[in-house]
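Dear Dr. V.,

Thank you for agreeing to look over these. As mentioned in my earlier message, I'm a first-year student in the group and I'm still getting used to reading structure tokens, so any feedback on how I've presented them would be very welcome. I ran two proteins. I've put each sequence directly above its structure. The first is here:
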Amino acid sequence: MSDSLSDLNKKLKQFAIDRDWEQFHDPKNLSMALIAEAAELVEHFQWLTPEQSKNLSADKLSEVSFEMADILIFLIRLAERLDIDLIKTTEEKMLINDTRFPIKKVKGKADYKGNDR
């Protein structure tokens, strides 16, 4: 089991190398695969009420978790191919969001557009 993003990245890269898939794992293809997997995740929630979406059966939750894993796999591979540190970039983005979405203006609101960057 991987206990860090770096460990998982190494395992995913080796998985692709072992299968000679690096040739297919360019940013264009990986981003397209990522969006396809995201669409598969959405399908599990289509037409559910918000309450139903919070109370998935064990089988449905398992299917959803595998779709989420597929998304993470392609996101990690894409970041590796573009030499992007996802942890660092996420921390930077959180700082930006903290400024764009001040608590006093957004608390409890879903429609706040945020300050300009």
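The second protein is here, in the same arrangement:
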Amino acid sequence: MIQQQEIIDVLKTIYDPEIPVNIFDLGLIYKIDINEEDDVQVDMTLTSPACPVAETLPPMIEQAIKLQVPETKMSVVNVVWDPPWDQDKMTMSAKLELGML
């Protein structure tokens, strides 16, 4: 059975190309579901609806999960806009990295 921390570890290797912080610490990941068949579903948002990687980032994440957690049968990334992303969703380490604290 895949553990949620395994997926988080993968997500922490993926960076927004415009911001030098990984997508997990940026607060872009809203939900991680792993079912009994080792299918992984991730709900995420982007910093802006006009984000230039809106089309390419989700498939990149799906592929990274499959490659780095080989037990994964299927991975699906859904982009959601509710609730909208804001800086409060960032971890303290992300805020420190960006000089916001």
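From my reading of the second output: The CA atoms of residues 41 and 62 lie 9 Å apart. Residues 57-68 form the longest helix (12 residues). Does that match how you would interpret it?

Kind regards,
E.
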